[in-house]
Specification:
The protein has 302 residues and is an alpha+beta fold. Helices cover 31% and strands 22% of the residues. It is globular and about 55 Å long. Bound molecules: 2-oxoglutaric acid (AKG) and fe (ii) ion. 2-oxoglutaric acid binds next to strand 8, strand 12 and strand 13. It comes from Roseibium algicola.
Length: 302
């Protein structure tokens, strides 16, 4: 362990089997880097940014979300060779089947995705098909400060944000696969002229990993859910106004039909205390507003 809390992500050179993937990584929600997994994928020859973008626009199942393209069912399978563990997890009844998505990211050099974690307790499996991206992952046990009620970290100086956090910093190179567990914050910077990655997302039905950020997520989602379904028309209207005003980049409204099941059941008192903890971030939020404006121009195209 070094003084600045940088750790080294678990790294292997061959895909684990399904049972090992579950036991060592997915059940424990620990990240994994598989080097060179996609070395021989036809996509490495076939995909080129302009052509791929044009092709994705012709596919009826695919939606252009601005930041990425997304499909709820398989597309361009002829160009990729999914490892067995991935096929098995996507087909398994351990996950919510309506949570599965195929996403395509086509980015030019220096494209930057700021610190956030994916909502709906999403697990992400990413393959860097072309180019290279630098990732920083921050453990949900040392969460970053967020904008109130959101999964987006305050836009502040990175060195200060990472002080005393447990994090991994590494390059995802052409052909590498990354398993990103739920609630791990990440920021990503594209490092080559052409950068293409594909990722699959899924949400487990259950979890026994009760990290600090998991608790906050359950509490903020519980609160948002109670505002949305409140008996008071005023509360419901305030909720709807706030959601409409917020950028629709992370599915802030908790889109899944069912919550993930876990031993953590926050009490009403905990939800109320969460409400006030979130409000306490308002002063910090105001201080970062100039950064928010410039970042939203780049990010929120949905
Ligand atoms: O590749 C990027 O720029 C962002 C990726 C990301 O946030 C994700 O896959 O969840
Ligand atoms: Fe993400």
């Amino acid at each position: 362990m070094s003084g600045d809390n940088t750790h080294t992500i678990a790294t292997v050179t061959a895909a684990p089997g399904y049972a090992e993937f579950l036991e060592a990584y997915c059940d424990k929600e620990q990240p994994l880097l598989i080097k060179g997994l996609a070395k021989n994928w036809p996509a490495r020859e076939r995909w080129q940014s302009g052509r791929l973008r044009a092709e994705l626009h012709t596919l009826p199942k695919v939606r252009d979300r601005g930041v990425f393209f997304v499909s709820r069912s398989p597309v361009l399978e002829q160009d990729i060779e999914m490892p067995e563990f991935l096929k098995e997890i996507l087909a398994s009844d351990r996950i919510m089947q309506d949570s599965v998505a195929w996403r395509f990211w086509i980015n030019s050099r220096n494209n930057r995705t700021e610190f956030h974690y994916d909502t709906n307790a999403e697990n992400v499996i990413t393959v860097q098909v072309k180019g290279r991206k630098e990732w920083v992952l921050v453990s949900p046990e040392t969460p970053l400060p967020c904008y109130p009620f959101t999964n987006f970290s305050l836009l502040k100086d990175e060195q200060r944000l990472l002080r005393n956090k447990r994090f991994y910093k590494f390059d995802l190179e052409e052909g590498d696969l990354l398993y990103l567990p739920p609630h791990w914050y990440h920021r990503v910077v594209a490092k080559e002229d052409e950068n293409i990655n594909i990722n699959w997302t899924f949400t487990k039905r259950e979890t026994s990993v009760i990290s600090k950020e998991f608790k906050r997520d359950m509490e903020r989602c519980g609160l948002l859910h109670s505002f949305k379904n409140s008996d008071s028309a005023l509360v419901r209207r305030c909720y709807e106004t706030a959601i409409r005003a917020l950028p629709n980049v992370g599915g802030i409204g908790w889109g899944l039909k069912s919550f993930i099941s876990s031993p953590y059941k926050p009490s009403r008192g905990t939800l109320v205390s969460r409400f006030f903890k979130e409000l306490l971030q308002i002063p910090n939020t105001l201080l970062t507003l100039p950064n928010v404006r410039s970042t939203l121009k780049k990010v929120d195209k949905t």
